[in-house]
């Protein structure tokens, strides 16, 4: 927690609220070029103690009515709903969430309590987009507050739009962005909505885009942003499958699966000039501290080590052929985050060692390798000579690795009930710890180019 947050809570007499912890997951938002341009933050609100939660149900006394005010009276603790709102805001300003955003803006669903509390001003206006739910109670006080926040350069998104209604009409003038739920909007209405809203100058986000056909439809209608996992499906990656460098990477992975000599590895790497360039960068990074500048490929191999080369090569399989920055590449980010999450999680389980951690990382990396190569996932896994437990986890979600894979998939969707149910099989890990590891994994994937332990930035 920041010192500012501590002081604010102390002034309200609610220092115990520092123990209220929200959990967060992220969901990618892509631009028209298929590159990352933001993340929606999926929030699991903290549970209040039973006594505090019950207090929120009694609004019959003057004191309860005073507590229900958006701005708590001096010296009094905020009402329970406001305390939850502050816990969410407090979590959003923590370094873990910021790190997982990897420099991209956050789309955050905001409650009435969050909007009306000055605590929300601690969120940087240039890094957040406030999503307005259709379930919000819209009155003069809320509109006045939105106008006030807009004056402070905060931006608003109309969320979960499927059918225009009274709430939509009231909030539309104050929204810069409109997010349309493609799964619930009739196709005829979708085209009309897109046309009218684009003419009004609104930026359009299509949510629920999990198949290529929906992406193509909304792209043709002029949508600006796309939220969903269509990019991780084989049909969205036809251009990737024919990429010669990826087959060269696959050959290198097959070689690394054995016990290659330095001479064999050197010969294979020389067929991949881009790999050589990044390997030289990695070998000369300060983290390796070999004591001298590495100038030859052989020295780079010796300095880096085959394990690190293998991990790096596995993730480069997903790199976009347009040579975009690592943190903007959605498929590589998803693969790296899954792999790192599974590695972090299994290390916290009883009797897990280095071999189990390596298997978990591989399971995450190759859980959607068919998005790169197409064809049968099973046949691709066989070519990679992955162990039976890894294949069973990827193909049938079996074993501990399968449970971890299902858990990270639930985190990606922000399905907290599913995360909690799977967490029962991952004890002693809690939902909060699993969410925290998800953020850590996202941050590792996005900025690992700064560390010799991770990836190199793909820019050249």
Automatic annotation (TrEMBL):
Residues 56-77 are annotated as: Disordered. Residues 242-432 form the HDOD domain. Residues 56-68 have a biased composition (Low complexity). Pfam families: EAL, HDOD. InterPro entries: EAL_dom (IPR001633), EAL_sf (IPR035919), HDOD (IPR013976), RNase_Y/CdgJ (IPR052340). Keywords: Hydrolase. One of its GO terms (molecular function) is cyclic-guanylate-specific phosphodiesterase activity. Its EC number is 3.1.4.52. This is Cyclic di-GMP phosphodiesterase CdgJ.
């Amino acid at each position: 927690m920041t010192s500012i947050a501590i002081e604010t809570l102390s002034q309200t007499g609610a220092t115990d609220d520092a123990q209220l912890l929200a959990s967060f997951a992220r969901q990618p938002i892509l631009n028209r070029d298929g590159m990352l341009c933001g993340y929606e933050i999926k929030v699991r609100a903290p549970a209040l103690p039973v006594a505090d939660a019950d207090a929120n149900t009694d609004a019959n006394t003057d004191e309860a009515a005073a507590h229900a005010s958006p701005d708590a009276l001096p010296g009094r603790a905020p009402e329970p709903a406001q305390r939850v709102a502050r816990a969410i805001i407090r979590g959003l300003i923590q370094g873990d969430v910021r790190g997982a955003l990897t420099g991209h803006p956050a789309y955050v669903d905001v409650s009435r309590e969050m909007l009306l509390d000055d605590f929300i001003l601690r969120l940087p206006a240039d890094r957040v987009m406030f999503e307005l739910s259709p379930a919000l109670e819209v009155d003069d006080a809320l509109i006045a507050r939105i106008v006030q926040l807009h004056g402070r350069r905060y931006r608003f998104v109309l969320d979960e739009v499927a059918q225009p209604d009274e709430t939509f009409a009231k909030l539309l003038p104050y929204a810069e962005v409109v997010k349309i739920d493609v799964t619930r909007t009739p196709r005829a209405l979708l085209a009309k909505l897109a046309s009218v809203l684009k003419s009004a100058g609104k930026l359009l986000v299509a949510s629920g885009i999990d198949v290529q056909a929906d992406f193509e439809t909304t792209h043709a209608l002029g949508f600006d942003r796309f939220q969903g996992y269509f990019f991780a499906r084989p049909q969205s990656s036809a251009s990737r499958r024919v990429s010669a460098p990826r087959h060269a990477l696959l050959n290198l992975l097959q070689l690394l699966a054995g016990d290659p000599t330095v001479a064999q590895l050197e010969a294979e790497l020389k067929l991949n000039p881009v790999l050589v360039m990044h390997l030289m960068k990695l070998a000369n990074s300060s983290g390796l501290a070999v004591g001298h500048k590495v100038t030859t490929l052989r020295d780079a191999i010796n300095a880096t080590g085959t394990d690190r080369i293998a991990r790096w090569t596995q993730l480069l399989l997903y790199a976009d052929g347009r040579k975009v920055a690592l943190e903007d590449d959605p498929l590589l980010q998803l693969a790296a985050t899954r792999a790192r999450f599974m590695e972090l999680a299994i290390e916290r389980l009883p009797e897990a060692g280095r071999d189990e951690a390596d298997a978990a990382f591989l399971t995450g990396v190759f859980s959607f390798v068919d998005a790169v190569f197409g064809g049968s996932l099973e046949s691709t896994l066989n070519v990679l000579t992955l162990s039976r437990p890894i294949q069973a986890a990827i193909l049938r979600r079996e074993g501990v690795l399968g449970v971890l894979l299902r858990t990270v998939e639930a985190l990606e969707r922000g399905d907290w009930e599913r995360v909690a149910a799977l967490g029962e099989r991952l004890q002693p890990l809690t939902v909060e710890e699993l969410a925290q590891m998800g953020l850590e994994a996202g941050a590792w994937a996005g900025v690992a180019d700064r560390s010799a332990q991770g990836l190199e930035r793909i820019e050249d």
